[in-house]
Specification:
The protein has a single domain, classed as Collagenase (Catalytic Domain). By secondary structure, it is of the alpha/beta class. It is built from 6 helices and 17 strands.
Length: 344
């Protein structure tokens, strides 16, 4: 069953910090400027990374402002991105060394996710985690077809499902058409229908700019009366509703802007070519979809240009090279979240 955003009486907007692209600007939401997705990212890209962060913050605010207007029972909680390392001096690229969690958890048996619930849920079994793939927007600009990208995403989901400590019973459901509530709220395609817990929304509708390769938008449940985020199982984590994953088409921040060269089973990056392994990125973003945050640290040594990574995990915050197998820290984070599912 497809879920459409519900009509509710809500009073506040929630904007949580970005993962990796943290922004402390205290700016009120702005109205969408046009039918082409509102405030464009092009000018922000031209002005530099800080303006891009501010613009992404405004877009997140705009999405939540529209959800309030529609009296919806969900909010976009944050945007979690993966991009390329910035090569300038000795730069701390990421230092996310917390508990490997996003602070958002799916609730076992969550009645709001149940198909036919008053909230308009989509799951036949709320103890099982589902995913869907938007095949209509599945082809990349550099010529990888939808069948190939879909298979790579399926293999990434299967890798998480195979972790022995958990019993997610990851199940693919048909997309039934275009996917992407976040895109739809920005009037950039997408759909107001939600059909799965983790939705891969394709390559063609949204782009985060700079050298961002892909990003995940988790949505959380809010109280239908007050708009306050819920924690119905009292575990001190916000209740995860569903996630949407978007894959970027262009590298806008590269020395020569152009389409990312998305590849299939690319074992080694080609020097001088912006080739990105699809399954590796899908595996990382699916980790966010399954509640994991970034983990690890990286920096460049100015004298020799050497990149230092610790650990070289799937969930590190920058794409460096293809990585289709989970690191111990990836499994550890996953097991701490899902090891008892669906009992807690």
């Amino acid at each position: 069953m497809h879920r459409k955003t519900r009509v509710r009486s809500l009073s506040i907007v929630l904007t949580l910090p970005f993962i990796m692209m943290a922004c402390s600007d205290d700016e009120s939401p702005t109205a969408l400027d046009s039918a082409q997705g509102g405030p464009t990212l092009a000018a922000a890209r031209a002005q530099g990374r800080e303006d891009l962060r501010k613009e992404l913050t405004r877009l997140l605010d705009n999405v939540n402002a529209r959800l309030i207007t529609q009296r919806a029972d969900v909010r976009a909680a944050l945007v979690s991105t993966i991009g390329t390392p910035e090569e300038q001096g000795i730069t701390v690229l990421w230092r996310d060394v917390g508990n490997k969690h996003l602070g958002l958890d799916f609730v076992p048996g969550d009645p709001r996710r149940q198909a036919g619930s008053p909230e308009g849920g989509w799951s036949a079994d709320p103890d099982a985690i589902s995913f869907a793939i938007d095949t209509g927007d599945g082809a990349t600009l550099n010529g990888v077809g939808s069948a190939a990208t879909t298979q790579e995403i399926r293999e990434a989901m299967a890798t998480w499902d195979a972790v022995s400590c958990s019993n997610l019973n990851l199940t693919e459901v048909p997309a039934g058409g275009d996917l992407g509530l976040f895109a739809a709220l920005l009037m950039a395609g997408g759909s107001f229908n939600v059909v799965a817990d983790v939705q891969h929304a394709g390559w063609l509708e949204l782009e985060a700019g700079a050298t961002t390769i892909a990003f995940t938008v988790p949505f959380i449940w809010v109280d239908p009366v007050t708009g306050v985020p819920t924690d119905i199982d009292n575990n001190r984590e916000l209740d995860y509703a569903f996630a949407e994953i978007y894959y970027d088409a262009f590298c806008q921040g590269c020395a020569v802007p152009g389409p990312w060269i998305w590849t299939v089973d690319d074992a080694v990056n080609t020097p001088g070519v912006l080739d990105i392994d699809i399954q590796s990125v899908a595996l990382h973003e699916a980790g966010h979809g399954l509640s994991q945050g970034h983990f690890g640290k990286g920096f460049l040594t100015n004298s020799n240009g050497k990149l230092h990574i610790s650990p070289n995990s799937v969930m590190k915050a920058a794409y460096v090279d293809p990585l289709q197998k989970l690191h111990g820290s990836d499994k550890g984070g996953h097991c701490s979240l899902w090891g008892s599912w669906p009992n807690s």
